[in-house]
Each structure stands twice: as structure tokens, then as C-alpha cells.
Amino acid sequence: MKALFIGDIVGQSGRKVVQDNLQKIISRYDLDFVIANGENSASGFGITEKIFHSLIDAGIDVVTSGNHIWDQRETLIYIEREDRLLRPANYPIGSPGRGSFVYKTRDGKQVLVINLMGRVFMNPLDDPFKVVDDIIEETSLQNSVDAIIVDMHAEATSEKLAMGYYLDGRVSMVIGTHTHVPTSDSRILEKGTGYISDVGMSGDYDSILGFNKKNPIDKFITSMPSGRFIPANGDGTLSGILFEINDLGLVKKLCPIKIGGLLAQDYPEF
């Protein structure tokens, strides 16, 4: 099984680079499954139903999220009927939507996608380690599904690394999101789980984390409110990670990918 995870889509620039390039990527690498974190796709804050459907139409199979999932109030309603939109599974019981779900790939394989959120420097949600244990106890590799992919949306790299090692051999991939800065530590862990601390963002990198530079700089300099951050709308880079999963549900190979915009690279061999 070949799959792609696309880093946090930020604003119009992020949406455009995904919509312009995703089908080419799917065709070039013969991908079976595509996941993207879309929690910043609506002007940097949340995701509307219209934008969600536009991402699905572009070729994304599942949209994950994080701490901005509720920024668009309509999400509280439409997430209940959209099983392809996930919120972090460690939100308290009774929160709208779902934090994990089993999906079918283009060739009929079963993939469990789990969305988690860290607690270091973030909202004090339920324990993500306990929550993920409960999920994979019910739906495990080989016995129930062909692959398990985890989006670990967290601030601290130490917390992401801890989750990677904690799940090594029990899930296919642990992919860090949230900080919008791609890390260079992608690798296959000892027991076969693929890992990266942060897959980066998909958006305009001539920016501060996808937003116009002025307001964030003013806030750092003055320590005063500087108005709502506005997404930068220059040429976007699609930042993601390609990975291939073997018959045991573990990762055979993986490869970061950056297409378009400031960080553009040639299509990698994969």
C-alpha cells in the first residue's frame, strides 16, 4: 500500500497548491490513500464544510485536525455527518465527531486513521497515550486492519517522539503535525513504524507559519495584540511524506516530498 500524508493546509495558498498538484502526485506514485491535516484551511482558522468538500474532491481521502478544529462554528454540526473529517480522539467523551475511523483504500485494504493531540504547551485534553491504547486494543494491525496511521498534533517534539516509540511496531506511521515547520528526522523505527516529528505545512513559506509576517512580528516586538493573523497568499508549497506499507502493516520505505513554492524540490524517487 502506498500513501501520502499532507502537512497542515494553511489558507487559500495551501488549498491551491494541493488542488493543483495532488492528482499528479497520486498518478505519479500510484497512491492508494491520501490523508491531510486541514485544520488551518479556512483562512488559517478551522475548516468550513465547503472547504472540506473541496479537499475531498481534490483527492484527499481523510482530513485530520487539531486545536483549531472548532474555530469555524459550523464544524460543530457538520462533523457529525462527515466520517472523513476527524478531530483529536482525546477530546472528552461527548465531543462532536470522531477521533478515529476505518477507511477503505482504492484497492480495498482497511486503514485505521487516528487523530491525537498533545498536551505539552497545549489544551489539557485527555491522555493521548491511554486513548490510543484503547483504540488499537479494539482495532489492531493484521487482526483487524491492514494499516494504522496516527496524526500526532502536538507542540513538543519530545511528546511526538514519545508517541512514536510508544507505538513502534503497533502502528504503521506516527506523523507529527502542528508546528508548520518540516523536520528532517523521518525514519523507520526499530520495530517497523514510520516516523517524522513534523511533516510541515502546505502553504506560503514566505511567511511566519503560513501567515503574513507583519502581525506576528509586531506581536513579538510589542507584546501587544496585533490584530487577527492573515494567511500569506503567495505561491504555496505542498509539504508531505510518502510511505509504503508492507503486508505486516509496517513501513517498507518513506520519503518526504515538497512540491511548488519556496521549498520546491524535484519529484523524489520512491
TrEMBL record:
Q: Does the keyword Iron apply?
A: yes
Residue positions annotated to bind Fe cation 2 are 39, 67, 153, 178
Chain ranges passing through the membrane: none
Q: Which residues form a coiled coil?
A: none
Query: Catalytic center at which residues?
Result: 68 (proton donor)
Q: Name one GO molecular function term.
A: 2',3'-cyclic-nucleotide 3'-phosphodiesterase activity
What highest taxon heads this organism's lineage? Bacteria
- Keywords of this protein's UniProt record, alphabetized? Hydrolase, Iron, Metal-binding
Q: Which residues bind Fe cation 1?
A: 8, 39-40, 180
CDD domains per the UniProt record, alphabetical: MPP_DR1281 (cd07382)
Q: Tell me its family.
A: Belongs to the YmdB-like family.
Output the PANTHER family linked to this UniProt entry: 2',3'-CYCLIC-NUCLEOTIDE 2'-PHOSPHODIESTERASE (PTHR36303:SF1)
What's the name of the protein? TIGR00282 family metallophosphoesterase
